[in-house]
Amino acid sequence: MFVSSDAVSTMKSVAACLTALAVLACYLVSSCAATISADSSGSTSVIGDAPAPPQILFFDLDAAVTAEQLTYGEQLVAFVLEGLVNHRNATAPVILFNAGYMNFDWPGSDQYWRDWLTAQGRATFVNVSSSTLCGLVESGDPGDRVKGVVLYETDAAPQQEEWSLPIAITIAGQQQLLPVTQAILSKHSCLASLPIVTDITKEPAMGASDTAWEWAFANLLPNASTAVAYNLYHYEPQIHSDPQSNATLANVDWAVQQRAFVMNFKTTGNPASEVNPLFSKALESMEPLFSAYGWTDDEFGFVWMTTQSGASPNGTKNNAAAGGGGAVFCSFATPNLSFWKLLALPGGRSKSRALPVFDRKMPLDHNKSYVLIETNEGDTPRIVVSAFSKAWTDPRRGSLPVSWAIDPQLGEEFPALFDYFASTAGANDSFISGPGGCGYVYYGRMSDPQVQTFATRCGRLMESYGPAIIDTFGQQGTTEAHSSAVLSNFSKYAAAGGVAPLMYISQPTRNIHYSYYDCNGQDSTLPDGTPLVCTPHNVFYVMGSLGGQELASRINAIAASQPAPNFISVYGGLRWTTTTGATNKTSLFSFWGDTIAALDDNIVPVGAQEMARLAREAAAATGSVVS
Questions:
Q1: In angstroms, rounded to a whole number, what is the distance separating the alpha carbons of residues 205 and 211?
Q2: Contact residues for 212 (Cβ-Cβ < 8 A; gap 6+)
Q3: Number of other residues whose CB lies within 10 A of the CB of residue 144
């Protein structure tokens, strides 16, 4: 019997509607005995038992902070409780916070995730009965994880809070306690009713910074994680001047869940001549490739000191140069990582899907210039928790080629969060790993054994999750020869671990004084044929407020200054504060769309994977990316 294509389409639509109704019915009764699917022919089938989505508490910390004027210390109690309740051995997360006041990349992200996960049937959420700190303490711990409080003081010595508070957090994570002061106990009866299990106000060592940290190293460090480090960034003068300092508090739940030793150390120096001795001591036994979360007063010193700290592969303390060292994952303004660590993937999977490869297979035109926009560094969980500062949720996504930077290590650490981007990516979405590919590091200041350790992991991660394009952030070497040697070795080691990068992108980070290679838009090719594309100085960290016409003018001038074919990377465009890029006019897609409309006719906007392929083809034809 002949069936028209219209009839087939109608039958598929009816089947899809029936499937959707069945799924909705399952969701409304909060339990499904089976998962229902429709195949490409439109038929439906039962594919096996599917558990009901977990019921998760939702606490409006924003409302509590506003209504009760919660201090830093009181907010700390909430985040520590979240980390204890979402404990690392749980089979599902217990609680999600609405902490938008801490997430200045996108204050509405927590509510977005709640709504999206609910619509997907991945979770059901129940509000904590009262949006107060005591409401959280009394109703947010259904498993009775909290065993009492740890009492600390902040004013018995000048700036005592800078050591007593982080030490109290470490104790809280190890002993399942909430950190409190007498002032907090006096204000909140629910906390006053809990037993004081540990009282460090009676510990003489807490009277001074040096003796307090010696005490913590002796009594707490042996029981702390050797895989995850955390720096609180709560010290003078930044606590009064830098919003990133207070926003680092949002990530305490992760430190508690992972039983990290909570540091609060400065990493000042650009470049630093030595690693802060306290920092070095705290990290002396960390395993190779450990992850450093939180933030500090000096980003660049933090990265360098992290790579220089830790044990060697054979366990020798303070011997990172032998193949150890860690990588930084910037995590201020990043709430709810303890939740994302535990959230299950759909369909019973244990591993995130790989990011898709977008390539329209356009042939190389030797008379054209090609340009991409890279949205951000990609080293930070901040950017995925905020859905790329909300830009990923823009209905215009897919209308323009955009290269989103995301770290594949996050796919291993937070599978459900990473999988969201892998599963919702579509046409015109491409991806870059950065900076450093698999954690924020400076290749040019790492020993070759360290590069080998790091690149081997990166090759494995890029093969499993993508993307095989690395942003070095410009810190791969101080000369062309040094840069080429380091990246050539990186590619060799990455290939042995899984897959070598298809392309490197270098940024003009002249302000980072560690191992900067200033190629300033002069692209080149490594001996193995891998392109190195260099972002020109005047299109680095561009914001929507610059305006598309001005950015196009700069790109046009860059293209005209070099023989075709050439390859131009632009960096920026995302909203980084509550004002930059906040309006539709200055948002990523308005900014980039206006730019593309004003480009010269011989300039083609492409994605990262397209540029990598085209640049390789150009290099093969000419021996250099730029002819």
A1: 5
A2: 163, 164, 167, 205, 206
A3: 8
Walk across the sheet containing 469-471 and list its strands: 469-471, 503-506, 531-534, 524-525
Nearest 5°: the CA angle 90, 98, 101 is: 130
CA distances from 249 to 25, 93, 243, 253, 255 (A): 40, 20, 11, 9, 10
Task: Write the single-letter amino acid at 188.
Answer: H
Number of residues that this document lists for the chain: 627
Place of tokens 């217990």: 94
Q: Average pLDDT in the 426-439 region?
A: 94
CA–CA separation, 282 and 110 (whole Å): 33
For residue 2, pLDDT over 50 is answered with: no
- Give the three-class secondary structure for 568: strand
Nearest-angstrom CA–CA distance, 474 and 478: 9
Identify whether the C-beta of residue 313 lies closer than 8 Å to the C-beta of residue 57.
no
Cβ atoms of 306 and 325 within 8 Å: the answer is yes
What confidence score (pLDDT) does residue 376 get?
A: 87
pTM for this prediction: 0.91
> Which two structure tokens, joined as six digits, stand for 86?
């979402």
CB 234 within 8 A of CB 165: yes
pLDDT digit string, tens, across residues 124-145: 999 999 999 999 999 999 999 9
Question: pLDDT at position 595, please?
Answer: 97
Residues 6+ apart with CB under 8 A from 424: 392
pLDDT at 322 exceeding the cut of 80:
yes
In this prediction, residue 626 carries a pLDDT of: 39
Give the residue among 402, 396, 531 at the shortest CA–CA distance from 472. Answer: 531
- How far is it, in rounded angstroms, from Cα 552 to Cα 594? 8
Encode pLDDT of 551-580 as tens digits.
Answer: 999 999 999 999 999 999 999 998 764 344
